[in-house]
Amino acid sequence: MAVFRLICLYAIFVNVTTGNLCGPPLRNNCSEEAVSSQPVPNDEQGDDGFIDMEFFYISFGVCYTIVVIMIATVLYINPYWRRRWFYFIEDYIDTCRYFVAASFRKFSNFRR
């Protein structure tokens, strides 16, 4: 809770010292003339997003590749985990196969 208070106090301090706050008890006037609007730079690329998407895609691809390589490495090194992983995948495939077969059977009975 103390960290949150410090962050709030710091935000207020920054706003007061940069002149973003106005009105009593501050000395800054809140009139329309006193507020200067900064011009928005003309961006030719149309960068409207919060994140640079090119950097996001590159970093996502690199992280995904690293995770896949690490999982493959761990499964290669540890035979117990490797067997458990393949048993899990086999159970998942069987479950999906039974679900599709049961759904197809219900669908074929529905059409008659």
Characterize this entry briefly.
The chain is mostly helical and 112 residues long. The protein has helices at 2-18, 53-77, 79-111.
* Percent of sequence in beta strands: under 5%
Structural class: mainly alpha
Largest sheet composition:
none
Total individual domains: 2
Rg for CA atoms:
30 Å
Given the structure, what is the number of helices? 3
What is the H/E string? Answer: HHH
- The level of helicity is 55-70%
Question: Mean pLDDT, rounded to whole units?
Answer: 77
Task: Tell me the distance between the termini.
Answer: 66 Å
Strand segment tally = 0
Question: Per the principal axes of the C-alpha atoms, what is the gross shape?
Answer: elongated
Uncertain spans, ≥5 residues at pLDDT below 50?
none
Itemize the secondary structure elements and their pairings:
Blueprint: H1 2-18, H2 53-77, H3 79-111
Tell me what the structure shows.
The protein has 2 domains: 1-35, no CATH class; 52-112, no CATH class. The termini are far apart. It has 3 helices and no strands. The protein has helices at residues 2-18, 53-77, 79-111. With 112 residues, it is an all-alpha fold. The protein is elongated and about 75 Å long. Helix 2 (53-77) crosses helix 3.
Q: Tags for this entry?
A:
112 residues, mainly alpha, 2 domains, 3 helices, 67% helix, elongated
